């Protein structure tokens, strides 16, 4: 087969661009096909209806995440911190309770520590857990709802622990794989408070765009094509043919596919992918929720708010002041439950914590409803870990999977996307060098 390029990368997010950079720096020809009209995938810093640029997708990073921290160091980028919350609001049934933010998180300490206690034991090396050990395999069918129920908490403890994991998975704890929670905690040295800090505290001063643009600039040797929607990939003994919706075809020796799990089946792949990954893609991973920004009139002060998984909003926190108003970010586990474009709908939910809140404007992007993502950040359901990990490690074919969904380490984060893109690129580089 005569090739148009050596490697075709499907997707221009952090995984795809990292792979493209690593390959082009070794003199390998790369074409990147990105269906959107921008780079960045499920990260998106843009001007919003609230009066400033905001992150509508992935945001937070941390120095315990080695791959993203290496990139931050490489490009000399700076971090800023979300404000430290002073006040905590939490709901127990219909009752609103108030205290300090420290008091709120303190109520979570024993339940979270108990839930995550096995993390270091079953994942002593959290980047090297495949094939799954006997202990990890035994925990694979277990949901977070199962483990939360085991603690027999009082209504307050249950509401907080249930809500915390609805936030972390951006989905239903009854579908959330317990082993995924253990992975996050093991990567944080077994410390749930450090894990929580990594999830929602530090962000890039120039936004995620600053990092994606730095990587894209370093991948300048790649042919990056926006608005290129891939519909089919055919693989044969010599390589791959990647077909796009506009009728164009790109032939290459290898393909790196970075589609999220929930839309992996949106392109035809022949022959089909093995390792049960098609079944996982059909089932879908857990995160089907949303992130929404609200401009609230007046100064709310730095706060954090929590509720259980049955609430439309399970979590909210103050992020920025703006001309005397407050910019608040909130999360809910079920896309479509409220109208994310309706200030009154969001206001009604925020008032369950802040009874006098007046929402001036809202903005968001519904990643779950977006046909190019079908999910927010990737979080695995029970009995998915082995299949996803095996598929991500498969080097027997010309097609490689990459993206945060397939990360060995920080799956669900920018770090995981970078890790998987670098891994796929290194595999291909090694293979090309051995073929010389």
Key words describing this protein structure:
single chain; 436 residues; alpha/beta; FAD/NAD(P)-binding domain; Polyamine Oxidase, Chain A, domain 2; seven-stranded mixed sheet; five-stranded parallel sheet; 33% helix
Strand order of the largest sheet: 8-7-17-18-19-16-20
Biggest sheet statistics? 7 strands, mixed
Total strand segments: 21
| CATH overall fold name of the domain at 7-42 and 206-284 and 376-435 | FAD/NAD(P)-binding domain
Report low-confidence residues grouped into runs of 5 or more: none
Q: Strand-residue fraction?
A: 15-25%
CATH architecture of the domain at 7-42 and 206-284 and 376-435: 3-Layer(bba) Sandwich
Q: Kindly provide the radius of gyration, computed on alpha-carbon positions and rounded to a whole number of angstroms.
A: 22 Å
User: Which descriptor suits the 3D outline?
Assistant: globular
Helix content: 25-40%
**Structural class based on helices, strands and sheet pairing:** alpha/beta
Mean pLDDT: 97
Tell me the span between the first and last alpha carbons.
Answer: 18 Å
CATH superfamily name of the domain at 7-42 and 206-284 and 376-435?
Answer: FAD/NAD(P)-binding domain
CATH class of the domain at 7-42 and 206-284 and 376-435: Alpha Beta
Walk me through this protein's architecture:
The protein is α/β, with parallel strands linked by helices and 436 residues long. Among the domains are: 7-42 and 206-284 and 376-435, FAD/NAD(P)-binding domain; 102-189, Polyamine Oxidase, Chain A, domain 2 (Alpha-Beta Complex). 33% of the residues lie in helices and 22% in strands. The chain has helices at 14-24, 66-75, 101-116, 119-122, 134-139, 144-150, 155-169, 178-187, 192-200, 207-218, 277-283, 343-350, 385-393, 414-435; strands spanning 7-10, 30-34, 45-47, 53-55, 60-61, 79-81, 87-92, 95-100, 202-204, 223-226, 230-235, 240-244, 249-252, 254-257, 268-270, 290-296, 303-306, 315-322, 325-332, 359-364, 399-401. Strands 8-7-17-18-19-16-20 form a 7-stranded mixed β-sheet. Strand 11 and strand 12 (240-244) form a beta hairpin. Helix 1 runs parallel beside helix 10 (207-218) and helix 1 runs parallel beside helix 14.
């Amino acid at each position: 087969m005569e090739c148009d390029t050596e490697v075709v990368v499907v997707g221009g997010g952090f995984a795809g661009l990292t792979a493209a950079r690593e390959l082009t720096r070794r003199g390998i020809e790369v074409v990147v096909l990105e269906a959107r009209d921008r780079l960045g995938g499920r990260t998106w810093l843009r001007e919003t209806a609230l009066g400033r640029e905001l992150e509508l997708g992935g945001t937070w990073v941390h120095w315990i995440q080695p791959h993203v921290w290496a990139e931050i160091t490489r490009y000399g980028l700076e971090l800023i911190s979300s404000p430290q919350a002073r006040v905590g609001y939490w709901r127990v049934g219909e009752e609103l309770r108030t205290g300090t933010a420290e008091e709120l998180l303190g109520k979570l300490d024993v339940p979270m520590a108990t839930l995550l206690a096995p993390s270091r034991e079953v994942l002593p090396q959290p980047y090297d857990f495949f094939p799954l050990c006997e202990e990890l395999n035994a925990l694979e069918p277990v949901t977070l709802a199962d483990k939360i129920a085991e603690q027999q908490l009082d209504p307050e403890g249950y509401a907080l622990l249930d809500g915390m994991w609805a936030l972390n998975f951006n989905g239903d704890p009854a579908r959330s794989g317990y082993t995924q929670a253990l992975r996050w905690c093991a990567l944080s040295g077994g410390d749930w408070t450090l894990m929580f800090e990594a999830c929602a505290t530090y962000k890039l001063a120039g936004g995620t765009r600053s990092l994606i643009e730095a990587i894209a600039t370093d991948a300048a040797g790649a042919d990056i094509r926006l608005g290129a929607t891939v519909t089919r990939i055919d693989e044969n003994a010599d390589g791959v043919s990647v077909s796009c919706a506009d009728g164009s075809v790109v032939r290459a020796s290898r393909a790196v596919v970075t589609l999220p799990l929930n839309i992996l089946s949106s392109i035809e792949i022949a022959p089909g992918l093995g390792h049960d990954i098609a079944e996982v893609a059909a089932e879908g991973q857990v995160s089907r929720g949303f992130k929404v920004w609200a401009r609230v009139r007046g100064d709310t002060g730095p706060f954090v708010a929590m509720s259980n998984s049955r609430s439309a909003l399970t979590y909210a926190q103050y992020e920025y002041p703006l001309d005397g108003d407050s910019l608040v970010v909130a999360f809910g586990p079920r896309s479509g439950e409220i109208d994310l474009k309706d200030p009154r709908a969001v206001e009604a939910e925020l008032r369950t914590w802040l009874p006098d809140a007046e929402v001036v404007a809202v903005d968001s992007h519904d990643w779950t409803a977006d046909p190019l993502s079908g999910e927010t950040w990737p979080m695995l359901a029970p009995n998915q870990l082995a299949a996803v990990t095996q598929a991500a490690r498969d080097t027997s074919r010309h097609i490689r999977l990459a993206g945060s969904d397939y990360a060995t380490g920080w799956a669900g984060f920018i770090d995981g996307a970078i890790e998987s893109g670098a891994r796929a690129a290194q595999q291909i580089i090694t293979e090309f060098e051995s073929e010389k």
